[in-house]
UniProtKB/TrEMBL annotation:
<dbReference type="GO" id="GO:0061733">
    <property type="term" value="F:protein-lysine-acetyltransferase activity"/>
</dbReference>
<feature type="domain" description="N-acetyltransferase ESCO acetyl-transferase">
    <location>
        <begin position="95"/>
        <end position="163"/>
    </location>
</feature>
<protein>
    <recommendedName>
        <fullName>N-acetyltransferase ESCO acetyl-transferase domain-containing protein</fullName>
    </recommendedName>
</protein>
<dbReference type="InterPro" id="IPR028009">
    <property type="entry name" value="ESCO_Acetyltransf_dom"/>
</dbReference>
<dbReference type="Pfam" id="PF13880">
    <property type="entry name" value="Acetyltransf_13"/>
</dbReference>
<dbReference type="GO" id="GO:0007064">
    <property type="term" value="P:mitotic sister chromatid cohesion"/>
</dbReference>
<dbReference type="GO" id="GO:0005634">
    <property type="term" value="C:nucleus"/>
</dbReference>
<dbReference type="GO" id="GO:0000785">
    <property type="term" value="C:chromatin"/>
</dbReference>
Length: 172
């Protein structure tokens, strides 16, 4: 975990990784809103490569995704295609939240090995000293189709919390 007060070389590395992740996500170089309040988790492979990155920030509010019913007869494959194609909508009523996942990324060759799940578990126990965050206290920033499929599985519901809406939310 890299924190805002860590040595410059560590912050520089995090910045390089964030730029790479943002390119992969197709984000325009979007600066983090509150850099001084972010916590970055890096998942390092045995051969010392960064294969996962999670950037979390303090937030106050999240908005619940409104789940659209998947047609009943769909196979698992069809469900994934449906999820990838549709836009997501969310409620306009804010709900209290504590931790925003600003970025979550796993190297393409290493996906579906529970690396993202392990990073969130680690985040939940380390984001606030001495407490373990519940899934209800976490929100995802502008989820991609992959992010939405992941969050739905991880949270156990398609009605997880989202926030930011492409940098629309300011620091608390
Ligand atoms: N399609 C369908 N289900 C998916 C999925 C996908 N692309 N990615 C994750 N899931 C679901 C699965 O049910 C999976 O369990 P299973 O493999 O046993 O079926 C479960 O979530 C846990 O996934 P996990 O292995 O922990 O996730 P991951 O390490 O592959 O990382 C992402 C998930 C989203 C971080 C990764 O796909 C990624 O980096 N994507 C590109 C960046 C991105 O879009 N980030 C999201 C920003 S919101």
């Amino acid at each position: 975990m890299v924190l805002p007060d860590d040595p410059k070389y560590a912050l520089k590395k995090v910045e390089e990784i964030r730029e790479m992740v943002d390119n992969d996500l197709g984000f325009q170089q979007a600066p983090l809103m509150c850099y001084s309040r972010t916590k970055t988790l890096l998942f390092i492979s045995n051969d010392k490569k960064v294969i996962g990155c999670l950037i979390a920030e303090h937030i106050q509010w999240g908005y619940r995704v409104i789940e659209e019913k998947v047609p009943e007869i769909s196979s698992e494959n069809e469900k994934v295609i449906f999820e990838r194609q549709k836009a997501w909508c969310c409620s306009t009523s804010p709900e209290p939240a504590i931790c925003g996942i600003s970025r979550i990324w796993v190297f393409s060759m290493m996906r579906r090995k529970k690396i993202a799940s392990r990073m969130i578990e680690c985040l939940r126990s380390n984001f606030i000293y001495g407490s373990y965050l519940s899934k209800e206290e976490i929100a995802f920033s502008d989820p991609t189709p992959d992010g939405k499929l992941f969050a739905t599985q991880y949270c156990g519901t398609g009605q997880f919390l989202v926030y930011n809406f492409l940098n629309g939310q300011n620091c608390p």
